[in-house]
Amino acid sequence: xxxxxxxxxxxxxGNGGIYILNMNDQSITNKRxxxxxxxFLKVGFMMTAALxxxxxxxxxxxxxxxxxxxxxxxxxxxxxxxxxxxxxxQAGTYxxxxxxxxxxxxxxxxxxxxxxxxxxxxxxxxxxxxxxxGFTMEHHGVQPAAAVHIxxxxxxxxxxxxxxxxxxLLLRDADSAVLRNNTIEWAGASTAxxxxxxxxxxxxxxxxxxxxxxxxxxxxxxxxxxxxxxxRVQDNRLLRTRYGIHCMYIDGSTVLxxxxxxxxxxxxxxxxxxxxxxxxxxxxxxxNVHSQGILLYDVHQSEITSNTVExxxxxxxxxxSSNNEIRDNDITRNFVGIQMVLAEDNTFTQNRFVSNVxxxxxxxxxxxxxxxxxxxxxxxxxxxxxxxxxxxxAINPFYEQLVSRNAAYQLFFQSPGMVFLSNLHxxxxxxxxxxETPQIRIGEEHTGAAAVDGHTRSGLVGLLGLVLVxxxxxxxxxxxxxxx
Length: 484
What we know:
The protein is 21% helix and 35% strand.
């Protein structure tokens, strides 16, 4: 066997033979393919490689063709559609700009992208009853060009993803629009100035619109409405803009359940009457010396209720506004909780001021009515246990007046000397904004039952105190007798 193995090994080395595995006894036998088989094996290998290339190359060519394919012009598709048609775009890339001058519906999905490289609107809607839904837009036209520009009425824009280097949705004299569940993001340079950016959603002279469920970030103003009445702005999310929601002359409108974070100002409401601002949350507006959660400027006969302003430089700024109801708001962890300048005849009730550096400040603000608010920095006295303090809480304007004259005095905020001077200041105290009956406990409903419950708790505490006094006296007497 040894000779045979040696001989076999020698032949293998000398002739390049190929040994075959015997599957019956799972051992290598002395069978081998002779040199005559090698040409056939080489041919088989070459045929396999050729077949692989035949199958692979067309696939790669198809992919390359897809990558290098020019965008499909969208305007001819629009022009060839009948009025009222529903156009379902197939997956692919389409080019703008496009003008829509008749009612129709344009639908796509995440695999559909419309690209616009020109400094004009990617889609310009000049007709009524147009619907856009579901696709992505890459708008590279610079400010003031918008991804979608609308001058018709009764149009609906929904579920679009817009990356813009200009504006997002621009409406001019376009009533009764529905702008719902769109994502609008700034696609330009992160260092772009405010003059280079457009607004996410921008309405002018466009009444009765509904702006709902949109996510907007990085643009100039998230939602800007001017002279557009009876609008409903609801459930939108605004991030890292100048003003999250900027409203001017929108009488009869509602700003409801919106969220803003890291904007310069969360909600700027200006020049309005009979408007409702409720359920909104504005946090972390503190990037600028003028940052605030909500600014009310020249606002009248409006309701500002159940909002949360947290972690802002100023929680709520009320300037030159009157006859508003400000109720049930959470004003938490701001540098200044509420700031009033030339604000008169407003009513503040059941608001909660918690962990603010300065709870409130007021300058030249008269006849504002405060009642039943909770101030965590106030130590009141509740004699009748009804949850309301018998001592009033007056907002001392000393610090605000001092800083307005010389901003450097901010360095001494809450210093012992500043607190001492503030306590000495009592000039014009009768005109200070004052909460006559502050809440003692946060979140308590002040009803007759609550008052009775308060009396019950007070009685139990008194009884417990008497028991403890009795036990103490007994112990002292017992210890004295025991020592004797």
